[in-house]
Amino acid sequence: MDFTGKNVLITGASRGIGKATALAFAEKGAHVGLNFRSNTLEAERTLACLPGEGHQLFPKDLSKADNCKAVVNEFLSVYGTLEILVNNAGISIFHEIDSVDFETWTQAWEATFQTNLFAVANMSFWAAQTMMQKGGGRIVNVSSRGAFRGEPTKPAYGASKAALNAMSQSLAKKLAPHGIYVGVVAPGFTETEMAAKTLTPIERENLLRESPFQRMAQPKEVAHAILFLASDGAEYSSGTIIDVNGASYLRS
Ligand SMILES: NC(=O)c1ccc[n+]([C@@H]2O[C@H](COP(=O)([O-])OP(=O)(O)OC[C@H]3O[C@@H](n4cnc5c(N)ncnc54)[C@H](OP(=O)(O)O)[C@@H]3O)[C@@H](O)[C@H]2O)c1
After folding, report:
1. What is the Cα–Cα distance from 231 to 252, expressed in whole angstroms?
2. Choice from 45, 60, 88, 141 to test ligand 1 binding pocket (greatest atom count within 8 A of CB)
3. N or C end: fewer C-beta atoms under 10 angstroms in the chain?
4. Could you give the count of Cα atoms lying within 13 Å of 103 in the half-sphere of its Cβ?
5. 2 C-alpha to center of ligand 1: Å?
């Protein structure tokens, strides 16, 4: 896969899967814009380790709708075009229905949907406007295995990712005639901070047993699937959801 000279914007790229994706695109010759919310130190470290030239940070909290327009405009003012958007930023919040109060419950739903769904819808809107003008582009959204198998401790997370899958498939149909191809990667547990924060040691042990690989995904394995969907030749895979879960949850 070759991305020489392509301008790529990755949300949530300070660490984890976003960082691995930024590295993978940079290794293949892309110019990478790295969005993140607030962790400037981590984002600067990530920027410093990218090979090649022309990479830049675009800090913005994308849960606020106006920031999505701003980050795409800032990206365009630097690079001129946006060829590939990777909507990776996401949050997961514990809010178990049998133990939280109503305020905690509603806050978790609102915060989760603002980042995991509405931000992706808004980023996709602004990206699509410029991609349609320039004759095409790629949007790759990072979903989760949790969209399919139920998330009893984080129901908003599972629901937001299921909605993200449905939205991505709607956009894949609508945007193909404009030369814009939309794909989804749905990882299982992946060795990142999100996974580390979410799991107790016993849960971790149990989760490792779910996969015949007896391990979690590495962020670069998820990045590999993201790059495939963004690559030349993957156009007809638009609308696809690629599982990267070590055969831990197989959909029919
Ligand atoms: N790790 C897993 O096991 C796993 C499994 C399935 C799916 N996923 C999905 O993969 C994606 C990445 O997960 P990860 O594990 O790499 O996460 P992570 O290590 O927690 O990193 C999250 C990234 O998203 C950014 N972010 C969070 N909220 C944001 C907002 N409102 N605006 C802009 N940036 C925001 C963070 O920025 P700051 O650094 O500034 O906070 C950070 O760069 C998520 O969509 C997640 O749901 C992860």
Report:
1. 26
2. 88
3. C
4. 0
5. 26
pLDDT tens digits for range 132-168: 999 999 999 999 999 999 999 999 999 999 999 999 9
Domain 7-243, CATH class in plain words: alpha beta
- Measured in angstroms, how far is the CA atom of residue 222 from the centroid of ligand 1? 13
Pocket test for ligand 1, best of 9, 10, 15 (most atoms within 8 A of CB): 15
- Predicted local confidence at residue 69, as pLDDT: 98
Q: Indicate if ligand 1 lies below 6 Å from the C-beta of 46.
A: no
116 φ, ψ (degrees, to nearest 5): -80, -20
At residue 18, does pLDDT exceed 90? yes
Element (DSSP H or E) covering residue 74:
helix 65-79
pTM of the model: 0.97
Q: Is the CB of 42 under 6 A from ligand 1?
A: yes
| Inter-residue long-range contacts of 38-44, CB under 8 Å, 24+ positions, other chains counted | 39/14, 39/15, 42/14, 42/15, 43/13, 43/14
Q: Where are the domains of the chain?
A: 7-243
DSSP state of 85: E
